[in-house]
Amino acid sequence: MKKYILYGIVLAVGAIVAALILGDIHKTSQIAAGIGGALLILTMLFSGVFVNGDRLRANLATESKEQRERRYKYEEKFLFMSIPCFVVAILFYWLF
Question: d(Cα 74, Cα 18) in Å, to the nearest integer?
Answer without folding.
Answer: 26
